[in-house]
């Protein structure tokens, strides 16, 4: 059945949307080309057929009912539905159905015209847009910051939903309320926002914003304009960020830094801080005031300009080395003060690390040690002076016996053993008569003239010394023999016996010389000096101008001394020595507090030998070390048998301090014997300070750390006993017996012991007096407040077995 003519069908086929026409029986009357393509059927398969011929029953009935509704009511119907096509694809189609009435043959024919529009792509785009908008909205809602938009004029158009969560205000009106901004920040916010609106430049401002809780929080507001191609602003896009925690942390940091600066600027030391590169970021006020630098001048590495140029390289190298290893730094240098003077400082820096281990830089202090350095230099100078004084004659400046011993010891290491040396002992004749006649001042001047003449008469390699009084000693190495020695002695005589002009007075002086020549390795120096002394005694018989050279046979005493050395070594090996003990009595109570250990020797042939004879021999031969250890061990062993309140005192020779393990040896002996360290007292003389004082002082400190007591023996006999009390705090000082023998008659001795007692009370040092032999002496020292006394009045040195009974019975 033909509904349209051919031309009209051609027009309908050109329409891209499918068009389907059905009659009242729901039969297909016409389909344009697009409709055939949509249905996927040929014309011959559709014209005259109905939906039930090509669709499932339920689907065909649904469509039939819609068609009947359109035909009955004449109302257009639009339906959007997903249709599965013949190729299996699903398309989203919008079908619009209308009723059309055609007149013909005296009757009207009603048709359903359906136009179909494929909206699949459109709906897909809409879905994607909707999903995108939902995604964007989710991002906006979940974003920790608050996005917002505004018109080109600055009117806020949209605010993210997080606004209310953050501020407590509704998003619709919060940004319009200027009163929400802290009054102190409002002018800055409005000024910067107005400038951005005019210039189009981005906005970046921090301010405080009121919250629903009635407080203010810090926010950062940033915005940028989106512009059209002609440069006009289309819209503003912004982000409001809650920076309250960061701002408060920053303010807390600023407050912490302010407190640090306040403390550092008031500190009595110069404080500095660097970054990880070593560049200074801070110097305290004291540094700036001391150096005259400004903070900017000191920043970075500018501080080094204040360092003395001679120290700058050392300082920079020290800091560079520490920086590379990220280790503490310590360096001393001179700092140029603002007034041009120099200050010595000690600079100490510690590395700083973050919690994650990152190196942050250094913080340190520079301490002004100028006064300490000066004191240290005075102390070193004083030590040098003391060292020099201990080894030189104060009147003539010539070396003394101690210097000669030390120099000879060094010389012996450098000169071949077969080399001959000569020692001359020179004694001035008539010096006492000159002193008596013209006074001590003239006598001293004469001695200086003698020293000068002798100095001009010897070689530079010779050693010229004054041993005191009228005695001088000359030592020459490399001498050829007795003839040269005799010529040199005669030269001394000729030079010194020329009359002297002294302050208008001419005086005559004689000289007597004794000498000895020997090979370097044959005898110790003291033996050579003694041999020269023996020869000198022979020369004195000949009067002034006499020289006698030592010959065998003159040294009977010297040979006896040599024999004593052999005997002493044998006695030590065979146990012929013994230790006696002499008590020290506590004067207020009369009880024995300490017993001093005194070594005794009974020679098998000679009988008792005085310690004054064999102790020097032990020191000369090196036997003092094993002898001292033996005495110490015996004394500690015996002391364990005494009552606990009684200590034992043991003398240490200065030569024992050459053993750098002395403190360790004492500790071992205490451990072996079981004696408590507090019950051991070690007595030393001030000569310990004269020989290697720094190392000896360290040994004394090590002994103190063991817990033993330390006493200075023979106090007052040296020239600097008081100064040594400043160098080291002794537990006890023992006044030499020479100050006690003439008490109470001697006002001088009484004044001295009174001063010593006062020193002891002031420094809280126990004071002890040696050599008390009479009741009058005892009364005198009691009156001055001494703590202890020792002497024959109480007891002589006794064998060990008698001491426990003595401790029990001795009371005053």
Trace the largest sheet across and list its strands: 23-24-26-27-28-29-30-31
| Separation of the first and last Cα atoms | 164 Å
Strand content: 25-35%
Query: Number of DSSP helices?
Result: 27
How many extended strands?
32
Judging from the principal axes of the Cα atoms, what is the shape?
Answer: rod-shaped
InterPro entries: Biofilm_reg_signaling (IPR052155), EAL_dom (IPR001633), EAL_sf (IPR035919), GGDEF_dom (IPR000160), Nucleotide_cyclase (IPR029787), PAC (IPR001610), PAS (IPR000014), PAS-assoc_C (IPR000700)
Domain EAL: 561-811
Domain PAC: 203-255, 329-381
Domain GGDEF: 419-552
Q: What does this 3D model show about the protein?
A:
The protein is of the alpha+beta class and 812 residues long. It folds into five domains: 6-123, PAS domain (Beta-Lactamase); 143-242, PAS domain (Beta-Lactamase); 249-368, PAS domain (Beta-Lactamase, 2-Layer Sandwich), CATH 3.30.450; 382-554, 2-Layer Sandwich (Alpha-Beta Plaits); 574-809, TIM Barrel (Alpha-Beta Barrel). 42% of the residues lie in helices and 27% in strands. It has 27 helices and 32 strands. It has an eight-stranded mixed β-barrel with strand order 23-24-26-27-28-29-30-31, surrounded by four helices. The chain has a five-stranded antiparallel sheet with strand order 2-1-5-4-3, sandwiched between helices. A five-stranded antiparallel sheet has the order 7-6-10-9-8, with helices on both faces. Strand 1 (19-22) and strand 2 (28-31) form a beta hairpin. The longest helix has 23 residues, at 120-142.
């Amino acid at each position: 059945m033909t509904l349209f003519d051919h031309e009209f069908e051609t027009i309908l086929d050109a329409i891209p949307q499918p068009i389907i026409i059905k009659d009242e029986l729901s039969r297909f009357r016409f389909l344009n080309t697009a409709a055939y393509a949509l249905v996927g059927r040929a014309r011959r398969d559709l014209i005259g057929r109905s939906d039930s011929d090509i669709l499932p029953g339920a689907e065909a009935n649904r469509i039939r009912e819609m068609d009947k509704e359109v035909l009955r009511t004449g109302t257009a119907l639009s339906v959007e539905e997903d249709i599965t096509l013949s190729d299996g694809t699903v398309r989203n189609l919008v079908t619009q159905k209308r009723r059309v009435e055609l007149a013909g043959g005296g009757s009207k024919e009603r048709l359903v015209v359906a136009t179909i529009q494929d909206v699949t792509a459109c709906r897909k785009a809409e879905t994607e847009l909707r999903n995108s908008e939902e995604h964007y909205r989710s991002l906006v809602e979940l974003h920790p910051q608050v996005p917002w938009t505004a018109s080109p004029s600055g009117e806020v158009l949209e605010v993210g939903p997080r606004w209310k969560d953050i501020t407590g205000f509704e998003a619709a009106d919060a940004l319009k309320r200027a009163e929400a901004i802290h009054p102190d920040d409002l002018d800055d916010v409005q000024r910067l926002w107005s400038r951005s609106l005019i210039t189009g430049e981005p906005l970046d401002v921090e301010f405080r914003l009121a919250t629903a809780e009635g407080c203010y929080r810090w926010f950062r507001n940033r915005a940028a304009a989106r512009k059209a191609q002609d440069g006009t602003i289309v819209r503003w896009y912004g982000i409001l960020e809650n920076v309250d925690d960061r701002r408060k942390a920053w303010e807390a940091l600023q407050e912490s830094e302010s407190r640090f600066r306040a403390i550092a600027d008031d500190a009595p030391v110069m404080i500095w801080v660097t970054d990880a590169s070593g560049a200074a970021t801070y110097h305290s006020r004291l540094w700036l005031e001391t150096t005259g630098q400004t903070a900017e001048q000191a920043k970075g590495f500018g501080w080094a300009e204040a360092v003395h140029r001679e120290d700058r390289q050392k300082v920079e190298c020290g800091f560079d080395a520490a920086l590379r290893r990220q280790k503490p730094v310590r360096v001393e240098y001179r700092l140029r003060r603002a007034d041009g003077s120099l200050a010595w400082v000690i600079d100490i820096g510690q590395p700083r690390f973050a919690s994650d281990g990152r190196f942050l830089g250094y913080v340190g202090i520079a301490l002004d040690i100028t006064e300490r350095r000066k004191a240290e230099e005075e102390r070193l100078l004083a030590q040098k002076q003391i060292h020099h004084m201990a080894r030189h004659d104060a009147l003539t400046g010539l070396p003394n016996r101690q210097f000669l011993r030390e120099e000879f010891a060094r010389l012996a290491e450098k000169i071949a053993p077969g080399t001959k040396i000569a020692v001359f002992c020179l004694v001035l004749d008539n010096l006492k008569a000159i002193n008596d006649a013209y006074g001590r001042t003239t006598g001293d001047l004469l001695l200086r003239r003698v020293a000068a003449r002798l100095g001009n008469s010897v070689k530079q390699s010779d050693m010229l010394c004054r041993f005191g009084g009228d005695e001088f000693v000359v030592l020459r190495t490399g001498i050829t023999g007795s003839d040269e020695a005799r010529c040199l002695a005669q030269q001394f005589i000729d030079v010194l016996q020329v009359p002297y002009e002294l302050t208008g007075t001419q005086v005559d002086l004689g000289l007597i010389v004794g000498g000895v020549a020997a090979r370097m390795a044959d005898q110790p120096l003291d033996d050579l000096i003694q041999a020269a002394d023996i020869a000198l005694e022979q020369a004195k018989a000949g009067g002034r101008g006499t020289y006698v050279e030592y010959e065998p046979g003159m040294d009977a005493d010297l040979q006896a001394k040599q024999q004593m050395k052999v005997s002493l070594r044998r006695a030590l090996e065979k146990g012929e020595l013994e230790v006696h003990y002499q008590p020290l009595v506590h004067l207020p109570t009369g009880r024995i507090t300490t017993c001093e250990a005194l070594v005794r020797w009974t020679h098998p042939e000679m009988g008792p030998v005085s310690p004054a004879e064999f102790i020097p021999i032990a020191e000369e031969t090196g036997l003092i070390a094993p002898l001292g250890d033996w005495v110490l061990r015996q004394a500690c062993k015996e002391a364990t048998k005494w009552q606990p309140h009684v200590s034992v005192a043991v003398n240490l020779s200065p030569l024992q301090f050459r053993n750098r393990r002395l403190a360790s040896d004492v500790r071992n002996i205490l451990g072996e014997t079981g004696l408590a360290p507090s019950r051991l007292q070690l007595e030393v003389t001030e000569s310990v300070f004269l020989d290697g004082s720094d190392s000896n002082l360290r040994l004394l400190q090590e002994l103190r750390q063991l817990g033993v007591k330390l006493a200075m023996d023979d106090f007052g006999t040296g020239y600097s006993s008081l100064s040594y009390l400043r160098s080291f705090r002794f537990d006890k000082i023992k006044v030499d017996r020479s100050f006690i023998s003439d008490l109470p008659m001697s006002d001088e001795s009484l004044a001295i012991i009174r001063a010593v007692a006062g020193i002891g009370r002031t420094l809280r040092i126990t004071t002890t007096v040696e050599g008390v032999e009479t009741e009058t002496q005892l009364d005198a020292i009691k009156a001055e407040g001494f703590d202890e006394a020792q002497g024959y009045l109480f007891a002589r040195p006794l064998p060990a077995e008698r001491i426990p009974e003595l401790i029990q019975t001795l009371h005053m």
